[in-house]
Write a structure and sequence with these properties.
Number of strands: 26
CATH class of the largest domain: Mainly Beta
Number of domains: 2
CATH architecture of the largest domain: Beta Barrel
Structural class: mainly beta
CATH topology of the largest domain: Cathepsin D, subunit A, domain 1
Radius of gyration: 20 Å
Strand content: 35-45%
CATH superfamily of the largest domain: Acid Proteases
Shape: globular
């Protein structure tokens, strides 16, 4: 959602968290679920951490048997009062209104900063060094070492940005915990700004914990232990981007309406969006019914379109399956995005922003120490859905 990352900031009608669209108006109503979802045999128990890891349950985690439909939220504080913040695997860096940081003007500064969102919204402020405390609904919390945080003081819009109004009060914090975003967000990104990779425990090597996380539909485990990836994940190694000092985006292949061969590029698992965004070559677009154009470079993909994404391109050769398939507009499928937007970018490479509903069928792993991403089929999807086939790894 940052800049070119998927052009993913959109209208309120798209059912997307407003923190990524306007950064204005009252905070979204947030509440912890009344009961903790029962964990599957493959899943991390919702209120238990693995040795050295910390499991933070989302404030708005779905109840037992329900699917995740909105961006997950966690508590955020800087030594004062806490506020709900969106956990966003599609951007990197903590972005908050300056008024949420006590004594912000006395903190060490790293200079001015901006955060451009593809909605056309541009947040402006200062990078300040401050420890960040993040907590889950289950009472478990972690505190980072001092990291750069963008203390936002103003917001404006690029020219002709639809639905963007300059000068609205900035109110919604974002916990950007993704990777490979520096090329999309400019230089105001990178591992040093990722709160999940800079906890005090990881910095000290406490309990052998290494940098990384596991994202599930109920919560996130921060910190990985053991020499190998957790059981049940099919994984792929990432290439290190020496120029940006980060790991590159994850690979994936996409086929629309059964078109063969599929087209391969990169994928962004994005917990900050309910909408999926696709960039595919023209031959993959043949036969797609388009139902609208919210912007000149965006077309809404019509109901009935079949999308198949191979999250680990060589999974079948390894005897594993990592296909994320759905039919656009299938309201009965918890993994079907609320909307699919086709991005028309000329000769840009294949790209897919999954949106958050991927988590209704898969857990997601990022090992920042070893440059590994992985997915684990959870078996939560009802038998009648398009993903309710046997997809266990």
């Amino acid at each position: 959602m940052i800049s070119a990352r998927t052009q993913s900031k959109r209208r309120p009608a798209d059912n997307v968290n407003f923190s990524r669209l306007c950064w204005g108006g009252p905070l979204l109503a947030l509440s912890a679920a009344a009961s903790i979802a029962a964990s599957s045999a493959l899943g991390q128990p919702a209120d238990r951490t693995s040795p050295g890891g910390m499991f933070l349950r989302y404030l708005n985690a779905p109840e037992a048997g329900r699917e995740l439909r909105q961006p997950p939220n966690l508590w955020l504080s800087f030594g004062g009062s806490r506020a709900p913040a969106m956990m966003d695997t599609g951007s990197t860096g903590v972005v908050v209104p300056a008024t949420l940081i006590p004594n912000v003007d006395q903190l060490p500064r790293r200079g001015p900063g901006t955060m451009p969102y593809a909605s056309g919204r541009i947040l402006r402020g200062d990078w300040v060094l401050v420890p960040v405390t993040i907590a889950g609904a289950n009472g478990i919390s972690l505190t980072t070492k001092p990291i750069p945080v963008l203390a936002v003081r103003s917001a404006d819009c690029v020219e002709n940005a639809p639905g963007c109004t300059p000068g609205l009060e900035v109110s919604h914090p974002v916990l950007g915990v993704g990777f490979g975003r520096r090329g999309r967000q400019g230089n105001d990104s990178g591992p040093s700004k990722n709160p999940f990779l800079n906890t005090s425990e990881m910095d000290a090597g406490h309990n052998g914990v290494r940098r990384g996380y596991l994202v599930t539909r109920e919560g996130v485990q921060v910190g990985l232990t053991g020499p190998d990836s957790p059981a049940g994940y099919v994984t792929v190694r990432l290439r290190h981007d020496d120029e940006h000092e980060d790991w590159t985006a994850a690979p994936a292949c996409v086929s629309v309406n059964g078109h063969t061969p599929s087209t391969c590029g990169t994928v962004l698992p994005d917990t900050g969006s309910t909408v999926m965004f696709l960039t595919v070559p023209s031959d993959q677009q043949q036969g797609i019914v388009l139902t609208g154009a919210p912007r000149p470079d965006r077309r809404i993909v019509g109901p009935g379109t079949k999308v198949a994404i191979s999250l680990i391109p060589d999974a079948q050769a390894r005897g594993a399956v990592s296909d994320y398939t759905f039919t656009v507009g299938d309201a009965a499928d918890p993994m079907a995005p609320s909307r699919v937007i086709l991005l028309e970018r000329g000769d840009q490479p294949t790209f897919v922003n999954t949106g958050l509903r991927l988590l209704n069928g898969f857990d997601y792993l990022f090992d920042a120490e070893n440059g590994i991403i992985g997915y684990r089929w959870t078996g939560r999807i009802p038998a009648g859905s398009s993903n309710g086939q046997s997809r266990r790894f």
